[in-house]
Write a structure and sequence with these properties.
alpha+beta; globular
């Protein structure tokens, strides 16, 4: 049985100059229509001197920092067309026209579980994604690896981080996984304020094709390698 990437969440990150975290509060979000008025808070908002965070019962979280605002939405079993943070993030920018927005990041996050040996995820990282060599055997414990990769697309550069992790279930059982964290970065462009905002709005509009590209790269490039590896080392990765 082939494995596919499990997409956990999508984050949209908007970089901005002189962004005040204190602006982020439930009253502001409700009154401006950035979030629907019938949403419920999952917990009390978090406020410090450098960050504000509001989380709703549907799992959507908004985080404000001095240089950016982050919208995070869990995907799980949701149909991608029903995701709400793309419209929310655009509405946030439209509501604050005096803030100098600089860039938009479309950041999908997902993982691939590895059944069988507890060492399966590490084996995939070190024997499938990396070339073998004596450098893997240094130290008193097996080496752990994290890869930072860069791909250039016409619409935006794409950064991909791949690293080993462990997924812990509510019953405290654990599953070795490999995490894939992606980021498509859209820089502001244009002469007038209208042109600059238009480029950032277009970046937000690209979220679905970016998410599909992220899934395609992992499923057809990285996991194709994993399938080849599993066929030669069946005692490490159970398919």
């Amino acid at each position: 049985m082939s494995q596919n990437l499990i997409v956990q969440e999508l984050a949209i990150i908007i970089a901005a100059k002189n962004h005040k975290p204190t602006i982020l509060n439930p009253d502001f979000l409700f009154c401006t229509g950035i979030v629907p008025s019938d949403w419920q808070l999952a917990r009390q908002p978090i406020y410090t001197n450098s960050v504000a965070q509001v989380t709703f019962t549907n799992g959507i979280t908004i985080i404000a920092e001095p240089n950016r605002v982050i919208f995070v939405e869990p995907i799980a079993e949701l149909a991608t067309e029903s995701l709400q943070i793309p419209a929310m993030s655009r509405k946030y920018m439209q509501t604050l026209p005096n803030i100098e927005f600089e860039a938009v990041g479309i950041n999908p996050r997902g993982y691939v579980p590895f059944a069988g040996s507890g060492d399966a995820a590490r084996q995939y990282m070190t024997k499938t994604l990396l070339s073998p060599g004596a450098w893997l055997e240094v130290g008193e414990e097996p080496m752990r690896a994290s890869l930072n990769l860069f791909y250039r697309f016409k619409r935006a550069p794409f950064y991909l981080n791949v690293n080993e992790a462990v997924l812990r279930s509510p019953d405290e059982t654990t599953t070795p996984i490999v995490m894939f964290n992606g980021s498509f970065t859209y820089e502001v462009n244009g002469e007038s304020e209208t042109e600059k905002l238009t480029t950032l709005y277009q970046g937000i509009e690209n979220w679905q094709v970016d998410l599909e590209t992220f899934q395609e790269i992992v499923n057809t490039k990285f996991l194709a390698e994993q399938a080849m590896y599993s066929s030669t080392v069946p005692d490490v990765i159970s398919m």
